[in-house]
Write a structure and sequence with these properties.
By secondary structure, the chain is mainly β. Helix content is 9%, strand content 39%. It has an eleven-stranded mixed β-sheet with strand order 12-13-7-16-3-17-27-19-25-22-23. A five-stranded mixed β-sheet has the order 1-18-26-20-21, with no helix packed on it.
Length: 507
């Protein structure tokens, strides 16, 4: 079993990176993209980008065969979906976003993912069952097009490559990839984010290929609405080829509601989840439970969770073009975790794990999000301050409030940091430290510091005696204002990932 641990906290945020396990399954470790306490919600829209072309229909026509006779994508000649009648695009599909009470909503974060099998431009299967390339070209795929609601023209979106399997032996047969772009600013400019989104020029193999051609896109939106309940929302991405060797991703540090029903959702996206190949599972457990609970609903069997469908809870999302019930290899889902009598997630829960495995259908998992109702961190802040004023303690073993909300992953926008209580570390000088990462394993901290120094950042780390973790900092400052200025300047435009400020030895 491969376990990849991500520690997130509504009390104190940190990421505990474990050493990368050289296994064919996990080829890019999962890391957070957005984390925050939000009075609002998270939604997603998705669609596939390739479809079958046979005698019963072309690639733009809906494919909705879901019975026992439904074929797999490697049994079809697959071609690009292209709905927009625009000569500048070779592939395009659409989906509609619908945020309830959109006028009261404020977009906090929007991310766009796209993924496909892409060994070459076009392939075919010979009579001897071997797959060969008809067109060996393989172009770059990190730039696509996006058309937003009520707009006539496309925006060019340049993203980052999360993973490319072309040169990975374990993935070379179908060469899957996943890419990501932050499109928060683009959506924030819209007067109303609701409406039809068209994503175009996503690259994928056409024809036939070993394992089948597949591809699609998923847009994830986090919005704020004061009328909704408070939630801790984490989105993260990586890349894992899931087979019979299970993979686990762990969350810890959040705190569910102290009383009443605990509600939680998982969102995710995967490639190559075939409809009629069973054995793939998504399981969940919290720290209080010994056993994992297989997730399922009306559309997703617990023994065939990834089944080439795009769904929101118990319904297939129909406001798409094409709105195929069977996408032939692209999966996107929103599912509530069934929690009768809080038997799966109890009150005051602080840890949870998801497990991915498959005994029959290999699939590629690249995006997931946890959305869970939690204690308002502002209330925790008030409690911590009250406790501090009563006890007059100068040292707190673990600060019981938010150190910093995680900034939107945008190099030009960071959320206002919150000053934490000071902790005592005898070996360090008094000040405010700009923390970039936290590690349990010394060698990981050393490698991360070296990576920062290679970029010209005078990084270092100290050991927190309260937990023995290594806190890597990009700078230290005598005053809070100096540290804040460095935080908002992205460490003088040299570090654009997550940062927070830690107070050391300050009375």
């Amino acid at each position: 079993m491969v376990r990849k641990k991500i520690t997130t906290s509504i009390v104190v945020f940190c990421i505990l990176n474990v050493s990368f396990i050289a296994d064919a399954q996990v080829s890019k470790s999962f890391q957070p993209r957005f984390q925050s306490y939000v009075k609002g919600n998270i939604v997603s829209v998705s669609n596939s980008i390739v479809n079958r072309n046979d005698g019963s229909g072309n690639s733009n026509d809906v494919y909705s065969e879901i019975g026992r006779d439904a074929k797999l994508n490697d049994e079809f000649v697959m071609e690009y979906i292209d709905i927009d009648n625009d000569s500048k695009t070779f592939s395009s599909s659409s989906a509609a976003l619908k945020i309830e009470n959109a006028k009261a909503a404020r977009i906090l974060y929007a991310g766009l993912y796209w993924s496909a099998t892409y060994k070459f431009e076009k392939g075919k299967q010979k009579k001897n069952k071997k797959f060969i390339a008809v067109d060996k070209n393989r172009e770059t795929f990190e730039t696509i097009l996006l058309k937003m609601p009520n707009q006539e023209s496309y925006l060019e979106i340049s993203g980052e490559i999360i993973f490319d399997g072309i040169n990975e032996e374990a993935f070379s047969e179908s060469a899957p990839y996943a890419a990501y772009a932050n499109i928060t600013k683009e959506l924030q400019k819209l007067e109303n984010p609701n409406g039809n989104y068209v994503v175009a020029n996503i690259k994928a193999t056409n024809g036939t290929i070993s394992g089948g051609a597949s591809g699609g896109w998923t847009m994830v939106i986090v919005y704020e609405n004061e009328e909704e309940t408070g939630k801790f929302i984490t989105t993260y991405d990586g890349f894992a080829g899931v087979t019979e060797k299970s993979i686990e991703i762990e969350f810890s540090g959040f705190q569910t509601l102290p009383e009443g029903e605990v509600k939680a959702q998982l969102l995710g996206a995967a490639l190559e989840g075939d409809r009629n190949l069973k054995g793939d599972e998504l399981l969940f457990k919290s720290a209080e439970n010994q056993n994992f609970t297989p997730l399922e609903n009306a559309l997703r069997e617990k023994n065939n969770f990834f089944n080439s469908s795009i769904s929101n809870e118990n319904a297939s999302i129909s406001e798409r073009n094409p709105n195929s019930t069977n996408t032939l290899g692209y999966d996107s889902f929103v599912i509530s975790i069934s929690n009768p009598n809080n038997a799966v997630i109890a009150n005051n829960t602080k840890e949870a794990i998801i497990r991915l495995k498959s005994t029959g259908d290999r699939y590629f998992f690249f995006f997931c999000a946890l959305n869970i109702e939690v204690v308002d961190p502002n209330k925790l802040l008030e409690v911590a301050k009250a406790e501090d004023s009563v006890t007059k303690e100068t040292e707190i073993n673990e600060p019981k409030l938010i150190v910093s909300q995680i900034p939107q992953p945008d190099k030009n926008s960071r959320i206002e940091p919150i000053q934490s209580p000071s902790i005592t570390i005898d070996s360090e000088k008094k000040g405010y430290y700009l923390i970039a990462n936290v590690f349990r394993i010394p060698s990981n901290a050393d490698r991360f510091v070296k990576r920062l120094k290679d970029k010209g950042i005078d990084a270092g780390y100290f050991i927190n005696p309260n937990n023995n973790y290594r806190y890597v900092y990009v700078s230290s400052h005598e005053s809070w204002n100096e540290a804040s200025e460095m935080y908002f300047s992205n460490a003088n435009n040299r570090y654009f990932d997550h940062l927070w400020i830690m107070t050391i030895n300050v009375n």
